[in-house]
UniProtKB/TrEMBL annotation:
Keywords: Signal. Residues 29-247 form the NodB homology domain. Pfam families: Polysacc_deac_1. Residues 1-21 form the signal peptide. It comes from the Bacteria. This is Peptidoglycan/xylan/chitin deacetylase (PgdA/CDA1 family). Transmembrane segments: none annotated. InterPro entries: Glyco_hydro/deAcase_b/a-brl, NODB_dom, Polysacch_Deacetylase. SUPFAM superfamilies: Glycoside hydrolase/deacetylase (SSF88713).
Length: 261
């Protein structure tokens, strides 16, 4: 009887491990590479690096940024290569009433926004992005990770406009437990490839996914990782391609939607 119980437990453990191995598009985990704020380095360095490995990235664009308006054709080409042009609002408003927000100007202080203004600006950004890539499906990223205008979750009024919204809180979840209105992510600043690889390994052990949130890659932003560390991360992902699904935020969101339906 004891031997039979041990055998059953062993079979259940094997079945569980096989289930985890098939959990993310037939792979052990998913990795999403996201890049915020529409920086020149994203077009000049990051996208060529991703293209060389045939990886898709998600680039959250501030639609009014000169790096968008002055380089539209390059963003269009990036989209044609499979990269997602995500919505990071029109002017990147953050809540200036919070501690440590001295950098927030009067014109882009989310705490002084009306809900109507926020929704209109985000939808305007969506239209501008559609004019570039011709696509109707995309995801949203909260500027500064701010979810509310005073006491209101403003994304509640935009859920039909997006597949998902990326937040800034870290964590490893199974697909059915993911809140698509606030998808977890890991903010990388001064991080080494070794540290990022350890995070991926943790996601893999959990049968989960990881969304990386980058700003500068080799400069151009106070929140930055070295270009060499980014390249080492891409090399690791290529070596582990049979186990790791490197995808865009919009494709991950659609995959999770199916799992939750």
């Amino acid at each position: 009887m004891k031997l039979k119980s041990v055998l059953i437990l062993s079979l259940l453990s094997i079945a569980h491990n096989l289930c985890l191995a098939q959990n993310w598009n037939g792979k052990k985990c998913a990795v999403v590479l996201t890049y915020d704020d529409a920086l020149n380095v994203h077009l000049d360095k990051v996208i060529p690096a991703l293209n060389s490995f045939n990886f898709k990235g998600t680039f959250y664009l501030i639609a009014s940024s000169p790096v968008v308006t002055n380089r539209i054709e390059e963003w269009k080409t990036a989209s044609e290569k499979g990269h997602e042009l995500g919505n990071h609002t029109l002017y990147h408003p953050c809540d200036g009433s919070l501690p440590g927000r001295d950098f927030v100007g009067k014109d882009n202080d989310l705490s002084s926004y009306t809900l109507d203004r926020a929704v209109k600006e985000i939808r305007t950004a969506n239209q501008l992005l559609k004019d570039i890539d011709g696509k109707s499906e995309r995801t949203f990223a909260y500027p500064c990770g701010d979810l509310k205008i005073r006491d209101t979750l403003y994304y509640d009024y935009l859920k039909n406009d997006f597949v998902a919204a990326r937040g800034v809180e870290s964590g490893f979840l199974q697909a059915r437990k993911v809140d698509l209105a606030n998808v977890n992510s890991f903010v990388e600043n001064g991080t080494t490839a070794t540290q990022m690889i350890a995070q991926i390994e943790e996601a893999e052990k959990s049968g989960s996914f990881i969304v990386f949130l980058f700003h500068g890659v080799g400069g151009e932003h106070p929140m930055n990782i070295h270009l060499e560390e980014h390249q080492k991360l891409l090399l690791y992902l290529k070596e582990k391609e049979k186990d790791i699904w490197v995808t865009s935020m919009v494709d991950l969101g659609k995959y999770i939607q199916k799992k939750q339906s």
